[in-house]
Structures are given as structure tokens and as C-alpha cells.
Amino acid sequence: MAPQRRGALRAPEGSGASERRRPCSTKNVRAPWEVQRKWLRTTVLGACAVLTGLLLWSSLGGDDGVTEVLAHRGEILPGRFIEVPCSEDYDSHRRFEGCSPRKCGRGITDTVITRDEAQRIRSIAEKGLSLGGSDGGASILDLHSGALSVGKHFVNLYRYFGDKIQTVFSEEDFQLYRDVRQKVQLTIAQAFGISASSLHLTKPTFFSRINSTQARTAHDEYWHAHVDKVTYGSFDYTSLLYLSDYLDDFGGGRFVFVEEGANKTVEPRAGRVSFFTSGSENLHRVEKVHWGTRYAVTIAFTCNPDHGIADPEFT
């Protein structure tokens, strides 16, 4: 008898054998997609984390243009001075021997004004600015000229409020203001090797309060780079006394010296004094404030007595 050929064995219907084989082949097809999906999920989560970090850094005051921090907010500097070549800006103005900048640079100190003095000076700014304030993000108070931001304009607070000023400020306020000005003046004179008596306070010297409110006028756009000697011809030496703390009281708002490919910043700290020669060698700007409120006072000096102004007096 010839041997019978046997066909391939078939699983009985309903045995489930064929069904068990199908998932195996499906799994092989699905495996690459599972890998891709996990990779995609990881990539998306990573990108979100990076984006969140960048947004947080930005909201805290990060700025891609800053490559070096000259003074961190956590440092307490007895004095730091960086000399830079003088620009030619001073050549187009009358020179005063022994005062007009021959040595140029920028300095920072945290030991001239105490934090208590800074807090008391800030209270003067707060009292004065409580009488007005800009509709935009930047308000000023000038105790010398009386200029005060109100809405989209400026008023002379001494004329506008009259005798009410006597109930806002005190003689002690004005004396503290004068004492602080004198300390800053002496610091600048020592740093640049000139006589303090050759320096004269000049205008504008003023308090500033900056927050994140959208600008309403050009006066609110404080963040543009500029040169003080070009903007205010009388300036020879500029100083800023900071009255609030970066990242504690506000985000953004750092002071930036603009240099090609190497911007440098000063992080504000209450009581910190930053000072510099006012020419193009110290082109600078202030970062936009992202949150909170930044307080400072700008104190400017000239070598030309004709451009000098007197200290404000409480009358």
C-alpha cells in the first residue's frame, strides 16, 4: 500500500491555536511604534522642561545679552573698580583740569550706604511717589526741581501740592538725602583720584520707581541703551543707589553695560552704589522689569560749576 501523504495539521476550530499565533505577529509589528511613542513622549517632556526653564529664567530677569555679572545680588563688595578707555565725548565739552575724566571706568560698592539708610531713603521715594505716579511702568520724583510723574505728564510737586508737602516730608528726610549724596560724591572722587570739592551735583538727579506696567509714553521706555554724556551734556560722573533687591523685590531690571559681544551687568541690591564716567565708554541700559517694583536714585555730578544745582531744602 502506497504511503499516504499527510497534509499540514490543522487546528480544530475553536481550539484558539490560530488566535494565539496572531498576537505574536501583531506584537512584532507594534514594537517599533511603541519605541517611537516612548521616544516621542520623552522628547516632548524634555522640550517642555527646557521651555519652562527658559520662561522661568526670563521671568526672573534673564537676558541673553548678558555674558558677565560684575556684581551679584548676594555679594557684599567693599569696592570693585574696572578701568576702561575714555571716549572722545569729553573733548566736545569744556574741560576742567583735575576733574574732567582722564581716567574712565565703572565701580560698585556695598559698604558706603547701609541697608538701613537705603530703606530710609526708599521711604522718601515712596512718600513722594504716593502723591502721583505714571500711568506707565516708570515714575520719577525729583526733589531738586520738584518734578513728579502724574499720569502721562509731570507736575511740580512743590507748586501743585503747596503746603501739603510739609506733611509728607520732614527735615530729617532732606538731611538724610544730603548725607547720602555727600557719601556718594566722596566715593566717586576717591575712585577717580579727583577732589570731591571739584564735583557739583547736576540735574537731573532723581528717584525712580519701575514696575511691569505697560509703557504709555516715551518717558516710560526706560530700557533703551543710551549714553548719559550725550543725553545730558552736563553729566561727567553718574551714580545709582539701589533701594530694592533683585529677585526679592523684582525680576528683570538689572543694569547692563552694553559692550559688543560682552555685555556686563550689575544686579541691584539695597544700599549698593554703582558709579561710572558718563561718556560712551559706558553705554548702558536697564532690563525691563518683569514683576515687582524696582526703586533707585540716580545722582549725577558735573565738573562745570555753571551746571551745578543745590541740595533740596525743606521749607
TrEMBL record:
* Pfam families noted in UniProt: 2OG-FeII_Oxy_3
Query: Mainly localized where?
Result: membrane
For whether the record's keyword set contains Transmembrane, the answer is yes
* Family under the similarity heading: Belongs to the OGFOD3 family.
- Give cofactor(s), names only: L-ascorbate
Spans annotated as Disordered: 1-27
Q: How does it sit in the membrane?
A: Single-pass type II membrane protein
List the gene name: OGFOD3
Q: Identify the PROSITE patterns for this entry.
A: FE2OG_OXY
> What Gene3D superfamilies does UniProt report for this protein, alphabetically?
q2cbj1_9rhob like domain (2.60.120.620)
- UniProt superkingdom: Eukaryota
Quote the protein name from its UniProt record: 2-oxoglutarate and iron-dependent oxygenase domain-containing protein 3
Leader sequence residues: none
